[in-house]
Design goal:
Number of helices: 3
Strand content: 15-25%
Shape: globular
Number of domains: 1
Largest sheet: 3 strands, antiparallel
Number of strands: 5
CATH topology: Hypothetical Cytosolic Protein, Chain: A
Low-confidence stretches: 98-102
Length: about 110
């Protein structure tokens, strides 16, 4: 019967579509600052990234994609990039995908 709709978002690094809650949000604040938004509730324009360090490193090393997604009119400030880099370092590396998930049968 009524299955609950799960909002889908796309990682701006690897382009994988996942449920919104599976991704982490980056936000452009009213002051044009760019910061990680682990709660997903901060006001401002957001973009989504996987919870994998590789996706964050991709975006931090080539910030144009993030600037575009957040519709920034100027480059991301170096101190904001440094904070995003620090946040990325706390994330786990991408897990190898299992051929068949443990709870599914063929």
């Amino acid at each position: 019967m009524g299955t609950k709709h799960i909002p889908q978002r796309t990682c701006i690094a690897c382009r994988t579509v996942r449920g919104k809650r599976e991704l982490l949000r980056v936000v452009r604040t009213a002051e044009n600052r760019v910061e990680a938004d682990p709660t997903g509730k901060q006001a401002g324009r957001g973009a989504y990234l996987c919870r994998a360090r590789e996706c964050w490193e991709t975006v931090v090393s080539a910030p144009g994609r993030l600037e575009n997604a957040l519709k920034l009119e100027m480059p991301i400030r170096p101190e904001d990039l440094a904070r995003l880099r620090e946040f990325a370092a706390t994330l786990p590396s991408r897990e190898p995908m299992l051929a068949v998930p443990q709870n599914e049968t063929l």
